[in-house]
Amino acid sequence: xxxxxxxxxxxxxxxxxxxxxxxxxxxxxxxxxxxxxxxxxxxxxxxxxxxxxxxxxxxxxxxxxxxxxxxxxxxxxxxxxxxxxxxxxxxxxxxxxxxxxxxxxxxxxxxxxxxxxxxxxxxxxxxxxxxxxxxxxxxxxxxxxxxxxxx
Length: 151
Known about the structure:
The chain has one helix at 24-34, and strands spanning 9-18, 40-59, 66-73, 77-88, 91-101, 107-129, 133-137, 146-150. The chain has 151 residues and is mostly beta strands. The chain has one domain (12-150): CATH 3.30.1330.80. The strands form 2 sheets. Strands 1, 2, 3, 4, 5 and 6 form a 6-stranded antiparallel beta sheet that branches. The chain has a two-stranded antiparallel ribbon with strand order 7-8. A hairpin with an 8-residue loop joins β7 (133-137) and β8. The longest helix is centred in the N-terminal third of the chain and has 11 residues, at 24-34.
């Protein structure tokens, strides 16, 4: 089979503004815990931050498996992104990809590791009900990345 899937129902739609001075992923995870969201997706994530850390995918030396290269940016950046929400060890876990603009309007993108909110972050969260989504290693795909799994 070329895919795995699950079906659920849309639950609440939450819109929030995360305040400056907090780490972005921690802020999102706190919101998810407070709202008791176990599964869902983030169609809108935008704002400004500094001290951004992202993974940028590249090929390994043997060009077989992708590898992540961690990139860091200290200056303030504006960004937008989206992602999925699943459970890891019974806690909400976000997987977010984003694009950000540097000074001079140069763009960067990748998988979000961390970033400190500078001005604001606006987020829309869509809750999914009647479905269990987790992240785990799928050895058929890769032995090092936690991927979406449906129980």
